[in-house]
Write a structure and sequence with these properties.
By secondary structure, the protein is mainly β. The chain has three helices and 15 strands. The N terminus is likely disordered.
Length: about 230
């Protein structure tokens, strides 16, 4: 499938972003299994000098009943502020949308992302990555990629992140670890884990060593600052 067709097929529902003002935001989507769903984000950001910190939370509510049907927390690292961003993804050949959520955990010299994908399966919401996929924030260090991989071009997700070696700096070439997950109709299952033989300054060159290409980087799309 050509990249242009993939991008055209994606629907971004008013990117839900939590900012430092403490504002909570929401949007709605329509599904065939559960009807209208309200997507609600609860702010988790606090100033650096505030000791009490709430983690950001993604809450899904069934509009017809007002029932909370899913709650996903993004704990990050203790003592640092976190920003949560959410979008909705619709793909050709898949009836229900995916909900993609990524939180950035701010650090001093670097930051971390934790990303997950929610799907509508058998009338319920399923968190497809309950452990969350964690990557580094700097644009060359890591990514969560959507693509069609392998000889059969099956829908999948890549988690790519650099490995910090001895005597390496941020700007140094790094080895990268890559995990491929394939869509099985109700879940993304891990099918391949590898480490690059070479060292690279950017994750895109690392995945090319293994024959991958990244159609959409969720980390960059959801938290574009610095990318």
């Amino acid at each position: 499938m050509k990249l242009a067709a993939i991008l055209f097929a994606i629907v971004l529902l008013s990117l839900l972003s939590i900012d430092s003002s403490g504002q909570e935001q929401e949007a709605t989507i329509t599904t065939s299994q559960l009807g209208t769903i309200i997507i609600h984000t609860v702010n988790g950001r606090q100033p650096f000098d505030v000791p009490e910190r709430k983690m950001p939370v993604l809450v899904l509510v069934q509009a017809a009943t007002g029932t909370e049907i899913s709650r996903v927390e993004f704990p990050g690292r203790e003592g640092t502020p976190t920003e949560l961003n959410v979008t909705v993804l619709r793909l050709p050949g898949i009836r229900e949308p995916f909900i993609v959520a990524s939180a950035v955990d701010l650090g001093v010299s670097d930051s971390r992302h934790e990303t997950t994908i929610l799907a509508f399966v058998d009338g319920k919401i399923r968190d497809l990555f309950p452990e969350h996929l964690r990557t580094n924030r700097l644009p060359d260090e890591g990514a969560i990629c959507l693509g069609w991989f392998g000889k059969q071009r099956k829908l999948g997700v890549l988690r790519v992140n650099f490995i910090w070696g001895n005597d390496e700096f941020h700007v140094s070439p790094h080895h990268y670890e890559i995990t491929q997950y394939s869509w099985r109709g109700s879940s993304f299952e891990p099918v391949r884990h590898s480490v690059t033989a070479g060292s690279y300054r950017h994750w895109r060159k690392a995945i090319h060593e293994k024959g991958y290409d990244c159609h959409i980087n969720f980390v960059a799309a959801l938290c574009p600052g610095g990318f």
